[in-house]
Design brief:
The chain has 267 residues and is of the alpha/beta class. It contains 11 helices and 10 strands. The chain has a 6-stranded mixed sheet with strand order 1-2-3-5-7-10, with helices on both faces. The longest helix is centred in the middle third of the chain and has 18 residues. 39% of the residues are buried. The structure holds ligand LHQ.
Length: 267
């Protein structure tokens, strides 16, 4: 990564903002977009850039070439100065997953090909996933004597249920895009050639909604996993109070009564 912190220039990914959508493309196609230390640093910087940029209202995360992401770059792990695994997770992977979940803007995962290991975890951490018909998910950790990480053990049972999660995590079988749709892991499967357009359409719809309400919705959906019903009801009431005090709520009401599309300002 070069450039200053506020305006970084990326070397392992592409980061483009257009029409209020930030598209982040993992860009090491020869290695199936496997994650190196520079790529992890840049990915975290990209989510930081989104967090600071109020113009951005939705994110698309995808991969260049035939893979979404093959997880940790295993060649890098063989280098003599490779950090211990727990350190690598705590210092590089976990901050990326946390940044994705803390981001106000929703993330659309455009899963263009295989998502393996921590690459699958990156896909799981997106808010909505659309997949190309040839895409697949594989918890490849077990094949190299490791345990699922980067949030895989947290996301997967919540996304597909505990029984399927155990099967996928323990056996490490590849899950096709069609099966992923059947289990609710992806919202939609489309032909590969229309994936980018589909992801952009979903992101554009999100970008047209009230950003503060979306941010609150994202947080509420996250919080619900760790609280009981009464706490969830209370949390919803709090967040509705926040959303209800925004100019965008007033605009939404006016637009409804005037029978026109709303124009949300993000305030
Ligand atoms: C790769 C990789 C790769 C480097 C394909 N690295 N080059 C976190 C903390 C710290 C460390 C440990 O790990 C973690 C979390 C993890 O992510 S652990 C899981 C790491 N990922 C994997 O174990 C997946 C490894 N890859 C595969 O199993 C296959 O490549 C998949 C199933 C993804 C795709 O298979 P194919 O379509 O048959 O492609 P391929 O195997 O022929 O790969 C194409 C090229 O990509 C090849 O390079 P080459 O120079 O021979 O053309 C691979 O070496 C390279 N590549 N994954 N993770």
């Amino acid at each position: 990564m070069t450039g200053d912190r506020a305006n970084p220039t990326y070397t392992t990914l592409r980061y483009e903002v257009a029409d209020a959508i930030a598209t982040t493309t993992l860009d090491r196609p020869d290695a199936l977009n496997a994650l190196t230390i520079p790529m992890k640093t840049e990915l975290l910087a990209a989510f930081g850039a989104v967090a600071r940029d109020r113009v951005v209202r939705a994110v698309v995360l995808t991969g260049a070439g035939r893979a979404f992401c093959a997880g940790q770059d295993l060649k890098e792990r063989l280098e003599p100065d490779a950090p211990p695994l727990a350190v690598e997770l705590r210092e590089r992977y976990n901050p990326i997953i946390t940044a994705m979940r803390r981001l106000d803007q929703p993330i659309v995962g455009a899963i263009n090909g295989v998502a393996a290991g921590a690459g699958a975890s990156l896909a799981f951490a997106c808010d909505i996933r659309v997949a190309a018909d040839g895409a697949s998910f594989v918890l490849a950790f077990g094949r190299i004597g490791l345990v699922p990480d980067s949030g895989a053990t947290w996301f997967l049972p919540r996304l597909v249920g505990p029984a399927k999660a155990a099967e996928l995590a323990l056996l490490g079988d590849s899950l096709s895009a069609a099966d992923a749709e059947r289990f609710g892991l992806v919202a939609r499967v489309v032909p590969a050639e229309t994936l980018a357009e589909t992801a952009r359409e979903v992101a554009a719809r999100l970008a047209g909604l009230a950003p503060l309400a979306l941010a609150q919705t994202k947080r509420a959906l996250q919080r619900t996993w760790s609280v009981d019903l009464e706490a969830a009801l209370d949390d919803e009431a709090y967040r509705q109070g926040v959303a209800g005090a925004t100019a965008d709520h007033a605009e939404g009401l006016r637009a409804f009564l005037e029978k026109r599309p709303p124009r949300f300002s993000g305030e």
